[in-house]
Specification:
By secondary structure, the protein is mostly helical. The protein has one domain: Glycosyltransferase (Alpha/alpha barrel), CATH 1.50.10.20. It has a two-stranded antiparallel ribbon with strand order 1-2. β1 and β2 form a beta hairpin. α2 runs parallel beside α4. The protein is globular and about 45 Å long. It starts with a helix and ends in a 12-residue tail after the last helix. The relative contact order is 0.14. InterPro entries: A2M/Complement_sys, Alpha-macroglobulin_TED, Terpenoid_cyclase/PrenylTrfase.
């Protein structure tokens, strides 16, 4: 359909920009995954992997320039909802591929899922309804 084709063209042009925000890259990676644009998906995921925060055996993404959280005893920091959301989009992009994800992709996805699940509150929800 021409509207979808034009939208994908706009996304492809935007993906070529040098300075793209990490949140935007996460959304575009998932959009390209859904559209079956495997090369674009892989390129964005490669770029996102370089910006990943690896901590405590898990992987997530955060906003650039964010202040590091204080490491306090008996306090479990929960990330802002936008960071949970963009990390979830990267996970979706990681798993949305044809053929099925490789073992390496699944291993990396499990590190992302570990971080997302650590962000749940005691009732099983997250910091917002996003």
């Amino acid at each position: 359909h021409s509207v979808v084709r034009n939208a994908l063209f706009c996304l492809e042009m935007s993906a070529e920009e040098k300075e793209t925000h990490v949140y935007t890259k996460a959304l575009m990676a998932y959009a390209f995954a859904l559209a079956g644009k495997e090369e674009k998906r892989k390129t964005l995921l490669g770029s996102l992997e370089k910006e990943a925060v690896r901590k405590d055996g898990s992987v997530h993404w955060q906003r650039p320039g964010k202040e590091p959280e204080a490491d306090l005893p008996y306090y479990r920091h929960r990330a802002p909802s936008a960071e949970v959301e963009m990390t979830a989009y990267v996970l979706l992009a990681q798993l949305t591929t044809q053929p099925a994800p490789s073992q390496e992709e699944l291993s990396f996805a499990s590190l992302i899922a570990k971080w997302i699940s650590s962000q749940q509150n005691p009732n099983g929800g997250f910091s917002s309804t996003q």
